[in-house]
Amino acid sequence: MAKRSSLAIRIVEGKNLPAKDITGSSDPYCIVKIDDEDIIRTATVWKTLSPFWGEEYKVHLPPTFHSVSFYVMDEDALSRDDVIGKVCVTRDMLTAHPKGYSGWLNLTEIDPDEEVQGEIHLQIEILGGATARKLCCRVFEARDLARKDRNGASDPFVRVRYNGKTQESSVIKKSCYPRWNETFQFDLDESATEKLCIEVWDWDFVSRNDFLGKVVFNIQGLQTVQQEEGWFRLRPDKSKARVDEDNLGSLQLQVRLRDETVLPCSYYQPLVQVLCQEVKAGPREGKVHLITLIDETTTAECRQEVAINLVKLFLGQGLAKEFLDLLFKLELDKTDEPNTLFRSNSLASKSMESFLKVVGMQYLHNVLGPTVNRVFDEKKYVELDPCKVEMKDVGCSGLHRIQTESEVIQQSTQYLQSCLTELLITIAKSVKTCPPTIRATFRQLFKRVAEHFPENKHKNVKFIAVTSFLCLRFFSPAIMSPKLFHLREKHADARTSRTLLLLAKAIQTVGNMDTVASRAKESWLIPLEPTIQQGISQMKEFITKLIDIEEKEEVEQPKAQTLIVKEGPLFIHKSKGKGPLLSSFKKLYFSLTSEALAFAKTPNSKKSSFITLSNIRAAEKVEEKSFGSSHVMQIIYADEAGRLETAYLQCKCVNELNQWLSALRKVCVNNAEMLCSYHPGVFKGDKWSCCHQKEKTGVGCDKTRHGVMLQEWNDPLDPDLESQLIFRHLFGVRDLMREKYLELLTENTENILLSQSEGMALLLMTPWGPRHE
């Protein structure tokens, strides 16, 4: 049995933010912190007080998760970014909303006394006899304290208060991982109601000391147990009244916490077998399909989630193509009008959409990447709609004139034709790089639709069925919102966004294969019609080649798909020897596979084995002060002799840092001998920069964070978790499924063919898996 916690986050938008720039606007972005650790940075939305992000993330969490905080920042090119405000969502708040919290939350001002983090190791005990007893407080160490000084550290000391008396520890300079090992004693007052308060402060020579957090103990409770020892989370000081902060604006969020108890795979086998048997049997006339019942009893708000869980489960079983084929047939059986085919948000549509994202994201990047990057880099002004054309000055100084509307449209047409032609050529050449599993699935879809609509007047329908997914639900959304498909790190500005939108509409028109309908709806696309007509012919030829796939190619695909987990350029510094560590990093191209982390000088160079995955012991962040640079991670691994070595890798941003850490943690999740602690600093001279320990091989001063990972489309499949999620859903809708089954049984008594065991399972909805909520 295992606990799996995850957090689904959607940062929607902000409104009424205060202006931070002299232009009367702001350039807002969000930083998301999980228990005070930076995990996500959204894109910056330029020059607005009402930004829209629409970014979604899913984070795997350790069971000790406490809160998630959203900091709205204003990006500045010349100075430090300004903090606009924050929103904190606690675990208790999320537990009170089991279906997730969704709504607007007011931003609050950053209060230094509430910006605390970290833990302190204490032992509290009562000593002595019945008459003269002492209250003894031993302060051992603290970890991950807030960084209050410009050097990226703090100078912490402890202040212990009890019954009107105060004692203080020594100050540990430049450390967020201090070790005191000091003891404080007070005379125990049996009649006093005073609590024991242990506060941590950052000592400052010039200004006032900064509060770092506190822990409070109830002495009456302590007298019962006599002694209490452990790591205690530092709490903020909330004694001050909050100032009215309505003028900071608000943030719209959707946050959902899910805690799953996942049992061993044997518990889920009956459920998985029932689902697989149904899919293997395929569509059968007169049968009440379990998949049909799932489709008709699943609400629109959770259909996407159910679809992705089913897709991942059948991918793990090697039955994704058969599952989607069954959905195609069931959908076709309900459809007589080809114009509405796969246009609804049915389980078939959602499952196919999810399937393409899980299996085809790398293919999408290869096809769309060059054209999308071109549009971002060239930043051309493009507009075809006469109602939206802006007149621009052209020509050199002194000879400039205003462009006419027809000139703008002509230049825009030429540019869009160039981009569209380039993209269509890339798509046409991508047959062999398209994953065979996708090709095989499209072949089944093409075949099913051709059989259902055999008339010559519907000769295009089988092609449109493919493009309705490939173009309308995959390529086009990615072109319109490249940030959401990880094609770009930042959102497009207004000019680039308009160009991408027009290009996406052109691809949609090609996918619809009906320029007459498009012309009636948006007549200003007419200038692109020659290119679109040519594109339709190219798309048909491409689909014909795409579905021509050998069975052996389809079988071999899973191996190739799991080969590369993540790749990209990073800066490396490798720690060796006893001397001072220099902050010099060399840029190399890294590739993380299922076997090793490899590197080379360029993407096309021959890669040398760098670290074997089975030898990795930890993948963690490094303190900013260690190298004077942000976004550095460390990989602790065992060399051939079994000695622990550390490699330091620098990323370009917090998102890339966490993506690499997540990828490394996922591929090493089953490694033996993973470390429970590590040093977030570096060993400089004769001591660690974090905790000042002088023993290089000593126990780390901070706990490792193996459980914190970002979910990506290319994550390794987790069959037990997917089975549990499907079981939970079926268990929740069992009454609706029973009612729907009886309804269908009544309507088709003479035609339904259902075995007694299947009928009883559906009728009673006896859980096939473990019976727990």
From TrEMBL:
InterPro entries: C2_dom (IPR000008), C2_domain_sf (IPR035892), PH-like_dom_sf (IPR011993), PH_domain (IPR001849), Ras_GTPase (IPR039360), RasGAP_CS (IPR023152), RasGAP_dom (IPR001936), Rho_GTPase_activation_prot (IPR008936). This is Ras GTPase-activating protein 4-like. Residues 302-512 form the Ras-GAP domain. Gene3D superfamilies: C2 domain (2.60.40.150), GTPase Activation - p120gap, domain 1 (1.10.506.10), Pleckstrin-homology domain (PH domain)/Phosphotyrosine-binding domain (PTB) (2.30.29.30). GO terms for biological process: intracellular signal transduction. Residues 563-669 form the PH domain. One of its GO terms (molecular function) is zinc ion binding. The keyword Zinc applies. It comes from Pelusios castaneus (West African mud turtle). Keywords: GTPase activation, Metal-binding, Repeat, Zinc, Zinc-finger.
